[in-house]
């Protein structure tokens, strides 16, 4: 049992490395975060910043790829990193479920949608096929599939992209997980369906009381639904705060760049898009000092030498930033630029 007030998930100083022919890829380089019961944490960052590796490691899914993981991943106080593959299987799809960007990766094209969810139900619950089918229809209804009693026997190709994503969410919910991990769950969908899926996740979180860890390269996706946001750059968390604070008073120059690249509905899209110049660094040989310095408009000479720590702000301990500029200077810059 976890102590009262202890978060559901607590990741401490997690490092995940892949040995490759070109060198060791430091995909996750010492990240720490906590997620409370029924809360939503959004992890955002550009492509290649280590978001997927960070969440796949929670379920031990990087082990098969030869990754070396260090640190602690405490789920209800139990360190998942120390569990055997067999023990982890009991956690996966049961206490912690995961949904991916591409629903076709989770739904087998040759089996009926319902049969696959029935299997997920029976993987962790000792119930009859008939009972599991009943539960499957209920789950399909819960995620907004119309006429679930009939659609349960459809094949995946008879579902639209949005419906397949809903079916995948239904499958993830089969055993009422305490934590749902969603990796870019809406990237493959068009904007309208994207909004529907996000609203669905939000509703399920409230109704079922599960926590959500959502990964996206698009800060706009988590702006409304996350309680907290962690911004990743080059395998590290460079800023974290409540969503409200992070959107209103971001302090890291990289976060400023991500926020300026949110397309808004008022005004022409193209003009609103100001992508961060340059590209994400190699994780085999990242830049010295502050990893962001080659792309940062505010870099000072010593920022290529000194590696900033993720530190709480004196005025708000829940808001942490890894940048060498003085908080007062950063605030001034943000206010001037916005
Ligand atoms: N199996 C692997 N072997 C070697 N390197 C890997 C492996 N998996 C991921 N990486 C590397 O780890 C880094 C982080 O990858 P990751 O997939 O976590 O990024 P991401 O932030 O999820 O990006 P995206 O937004 O494109 O999904 C990348 O440099 C990637 O090339
Ligand atoms: S430490 Fe320097 S280079 Fe790094 S983000 Fe802050 S201002 Fe930019
Ligand atoms: Mg990814």
Describe this structure in words.
With 338 residues, the protein is of the alpha/beta class. It folds into 2 domains: 248 residues, Rossmann fold (3-Layer(aba) Sandwich), CATH 3.40.50; 72 residues, no CATH class. 32% of the residues lie in helices and 23% in strands. The strands form 2 sheets. Strands 6-7-8-3-9-10-12-11 form an 8-stranded mixed β-sheet. Helix 7 links the parallel strand 7 and strand 8. Helix 6 runs parallel beside helix 7. The chain is globular, with a radius of gyration of 21 Å. It starts with 8 loop residues before the first strand and ends with a helix. About 2% of the residues have low confidence. Bound molecules: adenosine-5'-triphosphate (ATP), iron/sulfur cluster (SF4) and magnesium ion.
List the helices and strands and how they pair.
Blueprint: E1 9-20, E2 23-35, E3 40-44, H1 51-56, E4 68-75, E5 78-79, H2 85-91, E6 96-99, H3 113-124, H4 129-142, H5 148-151, H6 161-173, E7 179-183, H7 191-208, E8 211-216, H8 219-223, E9 228-233, E10 236-242, H9 243-248, H10 253-260, H11 269-272, E11 311-313, E12 316-321, H12 327-337
Parallel strand pairs: 3-8, 3-9, 6-7, 7-8
Antiparallel strand pairs: 1-2, 1-4, 4-5, 9-10, 10-12, 11-12
The chain binds adenosine-5'-triphosphate, iron/sulfur cluster and magnesium ion.
């Amino acid at each position: 049992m976890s102590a009262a007030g202890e978060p559901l998930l607590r990741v401490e100083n997690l490092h995940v490395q892949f040995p490759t022919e070109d060198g060791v890829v430091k995909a996750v380089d010492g990240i720490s975060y906590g997620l409370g019961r029924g809360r939503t944490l959004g992890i955002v960052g550009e492509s290649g910043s280590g978001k997927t590796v960070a969440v796949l490691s929670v379920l031990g899914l990087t082990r098969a790829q030869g990754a070396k993981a260090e640190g602690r991943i405490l789920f209800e106080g139990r360190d998942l990193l120390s569990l055997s593959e067999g023990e982890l299987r009991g956690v996966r799809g049961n206490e912690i479920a995961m949904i991916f960007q591409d629903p076709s990766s989770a739904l087998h094209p040759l089996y009926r949608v319902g049969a696959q969810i029935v299997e997920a139900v029976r993987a962790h619950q000792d119930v009859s096929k008939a009972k599991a089918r009943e539960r499957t229809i209920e789950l399909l209804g819960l995620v907004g599939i119309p006429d679930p009693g009939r659609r349960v026997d459809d094949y995946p190709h008879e579902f639209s992209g949005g419906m397949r994503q809903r079916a995948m969410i239904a499958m993830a919910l089969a055993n009422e997980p305490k934590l749902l991990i969603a990796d870019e769950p809406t990237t493959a969908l068009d904007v309208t369906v994207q909004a529907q899926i996000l609203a669905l996740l939000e509703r399920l979180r409230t109704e079922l009381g599960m926590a959500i860890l959502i990964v996206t390269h698009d800060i706009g996706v988590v702006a409304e639904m996350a309680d907290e946001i962690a911004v990743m750059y080059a395998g590290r968390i460079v800023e974290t705060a409540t969503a409200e604070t992070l959107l209103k008073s971001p302090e890291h120059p990289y976060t400023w760049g991500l926020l300026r690249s949110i397309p808004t509905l008022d005004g022409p899209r193209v003009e609103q898009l100001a992508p961060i110049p340059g590209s994400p660094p190699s994780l085999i040989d990242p830049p010295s000092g502050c990893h962001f310095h080659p792309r940062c408009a505010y870099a000072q000479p010593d920022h290529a030498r000194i590696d900033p720590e993720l530190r709480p702000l004196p005025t708000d301990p829940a808001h942490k930033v890894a940048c060498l500029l003085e908080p007062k200077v950063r605030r001034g810059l943000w206010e001037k630029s916005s």
